[in-house]
Amino acid sequence: MLQTLITRLLFAIISSSIAYGTTVQAPTRAVPTYLPIPSSAAGPPIPPVGYRVESFGKGAYMVTEGTYQSIFVVSTHGVIVVDCPPTIGHNLLYAIGNTTHLPITHLVYSHSHADHIGGASLVLSSSLVKKKITTIAHSVTSARLSRVPDPNRPVPQVTFQDSYNLRLGNQTLQLSYKGPNHLDGNIFIYLPKQKLLMLVDVVYPGWTPFDRLGEVSNLPGYIRAHDQILSYDFNHYVGGHLDRSGTRQDVEVQREYIHDLYDNCKETIRLTATSDPVLGAQTILGAALGANPGNPWAAFRAYLDIAAEYCANVTNEKWSTRLAAADVFQFSNAAAMVESLRIDYGILGPFGNS
Ligand SMILES: *[C@@H]1O[C@H](CO)[C@@H](O)[C@H](O)[C@H]1NC(C)=O
Ligand SMILES: *[C@@H]1O[C@H](CO)[C@@H](O)[C@H](O)[C@H]1NC(C)=O
Ligand SMILES: *[C@@H]1O[C@H](CO)[C@@H](O)[C@H](O)[C@H]1NC(C)=O
Ligand SMILES: [Zn+2]
Predict the structure, then answer these.
(1) Per-residue pLDDT for 179 more than 80?
(2) Which residues have CB less than 5 Å away from ligand 4 (the ion)?
(3) Which ligand is nearest to the CA of 211?
(4) What is the DSSP code (8-state) at residue 39?
(5) How far apart are CA 173 and CA 231, in angstroms?
(6) CA 74 to ligand 1: nearest atom
(7) Does residue 302 line the site of ligand 3, with CB under 6 A?
(8) Backbone phi, psi, residue 114, to 5°
(9) Which residues pair with 68 in a beta bridge?
(10) In sequence order, which residues have a C-beta less than 8 Å from that of residue 42 and are 6 or more positions away?
């Protein structure tokens, strides 16, 4: 899936070494190798042009370069774009230009993160915009972008709190906010005619979630989002990442995964409150403080690391064969879960009321 990025990177390294007459340096850090990617995770190959367009029918399309995704919707009155990840950049405009002669009239921001909407400036200044373009996002996204101004992500013109029906010609996009999950302001984007649901940075079809459960900011909301997704009548899911769209089944599988991770980490915390020789907190904290006198951070880190490692090990027994790259991010996913169980859910194990 990272093939395109890696090819680009290799090309850059090789061409710069040719330019400067140097040889390619061996990396100074050991490069880890991970389990192979199961075929169920991978999408169709990315063509040599560097991006792939997937059609959902009735004028709705996904564009991906292999790692990120955006969608565009062709209506009788113009084109609606949702997100422009900078890594897709101009290729999104080429994909649209090769599909329709209609102008881009609307740009929807799924959420404020630069890796998904940092190409907004490219869309706004594109020749595919003829008269005017309307930008739409949740009010929290607008507030975030006002606080940290970025010329690549202009503050959206139209904002909403709960829901917004975007009707343009023959197309409808139902935008809906159901509370914080991956990030506050992250919206559900539903196309009833295509039975297509987009929610970015929550479900990673066929894959374990990205680092720390996709850099989650509200884990209870993130877990709840899986049920909110499944309450929609959809056939296609666009998660914003990797090289293929998902199905209802992909969402159900990740829901099962996230509940397993929750259960495993909760059981891990319970074990740390016992006198278990490996997981017992007294042993871990005592050893860390012995080696680092007066340094409670060192002790806490040792405790959190062992808890996350144990929870990741247990979770991988089942999931390393079911979801791609379980061995890449399982430790950080378990670490995010352990910390949320402690501070969001109040499952404090050895650090509870004494
Ligand atoms: C809407 O119109 C566009 C442009 O003619 C067409 O490509 C698309 O299939 C139509 N979609 C629906 C849902 O009618
Ligand atoms: C069609 O796609 C190709 C390849 O990405 C691109 O070079 C070309 O400019 C596109 N055409 C339009 C009209 O956008
Ligand atoms: C996790 O698994 C690895 C590899 O089998 C092992 O070396 C490590 O001790 C395990 N960690 C814990 C905390 O059980
Ligand atoms: Zn994000």
Answers:
(1) yes
(2) 113, 201
(3) 4
(4) T
(5) 17
(6) 3
(7) no
(8) -65, -30
(9) 241
(10) 1, 206, 243, 244, 324
Query: Of 40, 341, 120, 80, which is closest to residue 219 (Cα–Cα)?
Result: 341
**Summary mean pLDDT of the chain:** 94
For the segment 287-297, the average pLDDT, to the nearest whole number, is 98
Average pLDDT over residues 104-125: 98
Read off the pLDDT band of 2 (50, 70, 90): very low
Cα dihedral across residues 128, 131, 137, 140: positive or negative: positive
Rg (CA), the chain: 23
pLDDT at 21 over 80: no
Task: Output the six-digit token pair for 118.
Answer: 């940092």
> What pLDDT score does 40 carry?
85
pLDDT band, very low/low/confident/very high, at 229 (cuts 50, 70, 90): very high
User: In this structure, which ligand is nearest to the CA of 95?
Assistant: 2
Question: Looking at the CA of 102, which ligand is closest?
Answer: 1
Ligand 2 mutation target, pool 61, 65, 94, 127, most atoms within 8 A of CB: 94
Confidence (pTM): 0.93
